[in-house]
Write a structure and sequence with these properties.
The chain is mostly helical.
Length: 794
């Protein structure tokens, strides 16, 4: 007898990911495809973790090994569950696959017929009534009949019986499962009973039953844990074969928490450009909350406003309910696996997506009132929290004054602990709240300081273009009578962003305007402006002017007790020597030493980078790599791996690795798995992957080109890096039109941001000519004429 197909286990056509060891374990435990093992396995796992997917693979192995597979499912009918429902389903399948055996057993065990689909009565579950209205059938007769049927079917070939979702089983079904677990079979019958472990609250009837079953001889328990991050990434790639930005990927990995069903839903939502919890997933998650009592639901809703985690003192202050009522509500939420107690007297939602779903289900007015309660609790000191928490709640509660102040404090706190991305978000939030002139009149804020801070944070997080745009918007929105010193700070912030971004803008124009706005008298602000002005002169190769302004800036920084700013100026001055001279090297080494002494990490980072470039220009790759590694290590230590000079150090290491043929190292440096890079750095590193793959003749590089091209307009270096590699890929297929089109596309992208005749254009043209020469042997006469015409075009 062959295997029985199971339409209830859908054939996804996809490879099983991350469950190979569990599949081997359960197959070996049951003796499927191997010598006989145990009689039964209890398979537990959270909803959506992948139990059915695992059982589908087990079914395939069993059928491939000549087993017969039958399955039954328990359904959630609440208190109206139909007794023995999964076994009725099993009999329905055997009526098709083994009708003779079923008829023979039913002839001697008539109690069996009452389980056949279509013959169920509406009488009470126990005792079971005969389908023909005969006398009541005893449970023992029915249990013996089911046991005998499975044994007789297994005489032809081993049988795998699968009962899914036993957490919904009625009492009679649980009793029959217990009977089958405890009674041995003459032939090989293996049983798997699966259930949701997150549904087993303290008083759930299956909790005690499963503990009892697990102690029976021949029964083993397996817990299916969440997938690991690497497996989740593989699953995402399988579900979404097109390239996905690492920030999106990391978000799905974090939110799904290893749950396969959550992954599928979030990938679908990402494809639809949605950021909220998908409706179907939210509905599934909220079913558990709906089972709570009214007070417990209110506490859980209040907890969701806090986010994933909430402290006991905070939820107590926000809800304002009596301690005994609060404790009862929290206990109920814990027992239903909605909240999980954690250390330090707090609770967290079992799943992050559950917290999101509950919060998303709040009414708008309810949400505002709850956020206002959090603001009151945190601001009054009745509960402790961070400035970031206070800022978030105040903004949602429309408390403008508190939100602006807390956002700025939260940004400063984030920068102090190496979190420039978070700091930038907080500072930008404050600027958004102050966008309305009326708000500026209500809240006293130094916009020059705030603009400078947001620019520093955005630049440190690898987004200098965004920094320039944000500060320019602030500057353009200022009233005519706004303090000139604040305008000067904003202009310096814009100039700093321009000097680390690839644009046609001139930072010197901005620093000259700033210098004109700052009083010509010793002050910290003037020292800052002079330092930026000197750097702008150096940016434009005005060496003499840079030295003159830099000397004045250095003197003022030292007299104003600004050691870190002094280190920045020293770095600027050290890089002014003749290109490649030993004076530059020794000056930069001194700048590195000075920066380390004063704790000026940013200045040290820039000095190390420039020192690395000095060695790189002389083709001294080993000392260059050492400097770049040290620079990147400094950046990581201060939490700024995507900042200018930091990311550049990483990128140049990858470039040098390709030059010396260390492609494995280049790919390691280009791997952003588990990181959250800005779009431009990620595209540049992806371009390096394209380079390595093209060198190896790997056509899979084509798959990455659309992702890279999408960001050419943001940084010409992306096009300069990926374009030549793409041209060489086209040469492998002899695609002349693609070679020419790629060359022209790169030129167009670069000249739009730089200038028409950029240095890399020579190399680009050489690569294109070399690619065309590679294809020349296959040219037709028309192709030769066309190519000659193009090469003659200026």
């Amino acid at each position: 007898m062959g295997g029985v197909p199971l339409p209830d286990f859908p054939d996804s056509g996809q490879t099983l990911i991350g469950r190979e060891s569990e599949l081997a374990e359960i197959a070996a435990a049951l003796g499927v495809g191997a010598p006989a093992g145990h009689r039964a396995v209890l398979l537990a796992g959270d909803a959506g973790v992948g139990k059915t997917r695992l059982l589908t693979e087990l079914r395939d192995i069993a059928v491939g090994s000549g087993w017969q597979v039958v399955a039954g499912h328990c359904l959630d009918f609440g208190d109206s569950a139909l007794p023995y429902l999964p076994f009725s389903e099993v009999l329905g399948r055997l009526a098709s696959s083994a009708p003779d055996v079923l008829d023979d057993v039913a002839a001697t065990r008539p109690a069996l017929r009452v389980l056949q689909p279509g013959r169920r009565t509406m009488q009470a579950a126990d005792p079971v009534k005969a389908g023909d209205g005969a006398a009541a059938v005893g449970r023992g007769d029915l249990f013996d009949a089911v046991h005998l049927l499975l044994d007789r079917v297994a005489a032809a070939a081993p049988v795998l019986l699968v009962i899914e979702d036993v957490h919904w089983a009625d009492t009679s079904t649980r009793d029959l499962i217990r009977f089958l677990f405890s009674r041995p079979f003459a032939n090989q019958v293996a049983i798997v009973a699966s259930y949701r472990s997150d549904d087993l609250h303290r008083r759930h009837p299956l909790r005690q039953a499963s503990a009892e079953w697990g102690r029976m001889p021949g029964v083993v328990r397996m817990q299916l844990d969440p997938l690991g991050p690497g497996d989740v990434r593989s699953l995402v790639h399988q579900l979404h074969p097109q390239p996905m930005r690492e920030s999106e990927m990391a978000g799905i990995v974090a939110r799904a928490e290893g749950n396969a069903f959550f992954v599928e839903e979030l990938v679908g939502a990402a494809a639809a450009a949605g950021s909220a919890v998908p409706d179907d997933l939210a509905d599934l998650l909220l079913v558990r909350v709906d089972r709570l009592s009214g007070p417990a639901q209110q506490v859980v809703r209040a907890a969701s406003v806090s986010g994933r985690r909430v402290a006991h003192e905070l939820i107590a202050a926000v809800t304002g309910v009596a301690p005994d009522v609060l404790e009862a509500a929290l206990r109920e939420a814990v027992e239903l696996h909605i909240l999980v107690p954690t250390g330090n007297d707090s609770y967290r939602f079992r799943h992050a997506l559950l917290a999101e779903a509950v919060y998303g289900d709040l009414l708008p007015g309810e949400r505002v009132r709850m956020h206002a309660a959090y603001v009151a609790a945190l601001a009054s000191g009745r509960a402790t929290g961070t400035a970031a928490e206070l800022a978030r709640h105040a903004r949602a509660a429309h408390d403008l004054v508190t939100a602006v102040d807390a956002s700025i404090r939260a940004g400063d706190e984030a920068m102090s602990v190496g979190g420039p991305d978070e700091a930038a978000d907080h500072f930008q939030t404050a600027l958004e709240l102050l966008a309305d002139p009326a708000a500026r009149a209500e809240v006293a804020v130094d916009l020059g300081y705030l603009g400078h801070r947001v620019a520093d944070a955005l630049i440190a997080s690898g987004r200098p273009g965004r920094a320039y745009s944000v500060v320019r918007e602030v500057l353009e929105g200022l009233a005519e009578d706004w303090p000139p010193e604040q305008r000067g700070r904003l202009l310096v912030a814009m100039a700093t962003a321009v000097m680390v971004d690839e644009t046609r803008l001139d930072p010197l124009e901005l620093t000259e305007q700033a210098l004109a706005l700052v009083p010509d008298e010793p002050s910290r602000l003037r020292a800052t402006v002079l330092a930026a002005h000197a750097r702008a002169h150096a940016f434009n190769d005005n060496v003499d002017q840079a030295r003159e302004v830099g000397a004045e800036a250095l003197t003022l920084a030292e007299t104003q007790d600004l050691p870190r700013l002094a280190s920045e100026v020293i770095t600027t001055l050290a890089a002014l020597g003749a290109r490649g001279s030993e004076d530059v090297r020794s000056g930069l080494e001194e700048a590195v030493r000075r920066a380390e002494e004063t704790g000026a990490a940013a200045a040290g980072l820039r000095s190390l980078f420039l020192l690395g470039r000095w060695h790189q220009d002389r083709a001294a790759f080993e000392p260059a790599l050492e400097m770049f590694r040290r620079a990147y290590d400094v950046a990581v230590a201060i939490g700024q791996p995507w900042a200018p000079y930091a990311f550049d150090s990483r990128l140049i290491q990858a470039q040098i690795a390709t030059v010396i043929g260390d492609y494995a190292e280049a790919l390691r440096l280009a791997d952003v798995s588990g990181q959250a890079p800005p779009a431009v750095p990620e595209s540049l590193l992806t371009a390096m992957v394209v380079v390595v793959r093209s060198v190896r003749g790997d056509a899979s590089a084509y798959e990455l080109l659309p992702q890279v091209r999408a960001h050419w307009h943001k940084d010409p270096l992306i096009a300069i890096t990926a374009g030549p590699a793409a041209i060489e890929l086209h040469a492998l297929t002899g695609d002349v039109d693609a070679i020419v089109a790629e060359h022209d596309a790169v030129v167009e992208a670069v000249t739009a941001l730089w200038r028409e005749f950029f240095h890399a254009r020579v190399r680009l043209g050489a690569v294109a000519l070399g690619a065309l020469a590679t294809c020349a042997a296959g040219f037709s006469a028309a192709d030769r004429g066309r190519i000659q015409g193009m090469s003659a075009t200026p």
